[in-house]
Write a structure and sequence with these properties.
This protein is α/β, with parallel strands linked by helices. The protein contains 19 helices and 15 strands. Bound molecules: pyridoxal-5'-phosphate.
Length: 452
């Protein structure tokens, strides 16, 4: 009987995050001030974030220590298990070995508490009383609400309106943790009111919700903003996923040929992939790295590598990233999350350097993959995670076709227990594939800010 689950002793949990900035052949492009077009400094970000996080954002230290209090909280569910997906391998009749790292083991059910807990900790340290944020499907909002409850911080969440109505139980979860949840666009902010004046029926977008949260955060001294993806400090906190995976695979006597993650803003993908990319950049081990995005929000495969705003109202700094344009509003048909218009600047930079292979997958393929995974492995993946499952299945079938036995590792970023309506809709034949047309891409990209 082969052991199929690799657990690390909790004493083996990482005590430091891995910062890929230390191993880059060229630094990522500067972040620019939206008014002056000049590179911003730490002070420019101080109204939004605590200084400790700003310093992590710009750090080039390879290893950043995880505070003891954060480690203690992580230990409740970390190290997360690494499984060998033997029954999925059998179902696919593939010679490949498939491993998955299960981040759904956290209290909120996804990888997002890895950064939510760290962010809440640093805000608390610097005397912040209230955190404001946006959430799409509700995974980030519930993770920050959970972290806020642990540290006694008030949490206010602007939730994309379409999800607010489609995912009432995610909203309930946030409220159980003590957060206040507002459907976005809302009447509570100038940016929300502006959107509603132009589009009274707006279903919202992450870009709009970010504008609302940022607007509220800068109005009060005791309030800061928190972002669940995209920024380099968020990606940094997620690297515990990849660091643990390396140790667990070592325990299994293995190393991946290919590492796969789903990519919305890029944080769970970076979490599993960066420690492996780092080893490659340092010339230690080779690996292929695949980022899977939805065909309905294809920032890496159809977007442009350009300076853009993080939000619709143009309140955020300008970052160079693969983007569909900040005015992008994803199709309401698309059930699978991963709806942000841009890709994390650090992931974008590595893509530009040729270190990442991006692919776009249609939603029917992702749900078919999730169903097959659930029926062989038992865990029901979040719709976002289904993108990684689909990517892993494609790689396993490629191995079968080529008759090669490779090792595949993917990140199962969360469980789908709050997403069962999407599975019901899929089984009822109500979900459709959706291609974002070249004309629509061109229209949204026409609004990109002009940067020298
Ligand atoms: C939020 C989320 C994602 C997408 O966000 P990234 O920052 O790209 O990781 C993927 N999977 C799950 C389960 C999520 O909650």
């Amino acid at each position: 009987m082969t052991k199929i689950k690799y657990l690390l002793d909790e004493s083996a949990m990482p005590t430091a995050w891995y910062n890929i900035a230390a191993d880059l052949p060229t630094p990522a492009p500067a972040v620019l001030h939206p008014g002056t077009g000049q590179p911003i400094g730490p002070a420019d970000l101080a109204p939004l974030f605590p200084m400790a996080l700003i310093m992590q954002e710009v750090s080039t230290e390879r290893s950043i220590e995880i505070p003891e209090e954060v480690q203690q909280i992580y230990r409740q569910w970390r190290p997360t298990p690494l499984y060998r997906a033997r029954r999925l391998e059998q179902a696919l009749d593939t010679p490949a070995k498939i491993y998955y790292k299960y981040e759904g083991a956290s209290p909120a059910g996804s990888h997002k508490p890895n950064t939510a807990v760290a962010q809440a900790y640093y805000n608390k340290q610097e005397g912040v009383k209230r955190l404001v944020t946006e959430t799409g499907a509700g995974q980030w909002g519930s993770s920050l609400a959970f972290a806020g409850a642990l540290f006694g911080l008030e949490v206010l969440v602007y939730m994309v309106r379409v999800s607010y109505h489609q995912k009432p139980y995610r909203r309930a979860l946030m409220e159980v943790y003590g957060a206040r949840v507002v459907a976005s666009p809302s009447e509570e902010t100038a940016s929300g009111r502006a959107v509603l004046a132009a589009h009274p029926d707006s279903t919202g977008s992450l870009g709009i919700a970010i504008s609302e949260a940022v607007e509220v955060a800068v109005q009060r001294e005791d309030t800061k903003y928190a972002l669940g993806s995209v920024l380099s400090h968020v990606l940094l906190h997620q690297t515990v996923i990849g660091i643990e995976s390396i140790a667990q695979l070592e325990q299994a006597g293995d190393y991946p040929d290919v590492v796969i993650g789903s990519a919305g803003g890029g944080s769970n993908f970076a979490g599993i992939a960066f420690p492996f990319i780092g080893a490659k950049l340092r010339g230690e081990r080779n690996v292929r790295v695949v980022a899977v995005e939805p065909a309905a929000c294809p920032s890496m495969t159809k977007g442009k590598y350009a300076y853009d705003f993080g939000d619709t109202a143009h309140l955020t700094p300008l970052t160079k990233m693969y983007t569909l344009g900040n005015s992008f509003v994803p199709s309401g048909i698309h059930a699978g999350g991963l709806r942000y218009h841009g890709m994390a600047p650090m992931v974008s930079h590595l893509l530009d350097l040729g270190q990442i292979e991006p692919i776009a997958v249609q939603q029917l393929e992702t749900f078919a993959a999730g169903m097959q995974f659930a029926r062989s492995e038992g865990i029901i993946p979040a719709p976002e995670s289904n993108h990684a499952v689909a990517g892993a299945i494609r790689e396993a079938l490629r191995c079968k076709e080529e008759g090669v036995s490779q090792t595949i590792l993917f990140n199962l970023s969360g469980h789908g227990h709050f997403d069962m309506q999407a599975y019901t809709d899929y089984q009822a034949g109500k979900l459709k594939d959706f291609e974002y047309s070249d004309e629509e891409v061109a229209a949204a990209l026409a609004d990109l800010p002009k940067v020298g």
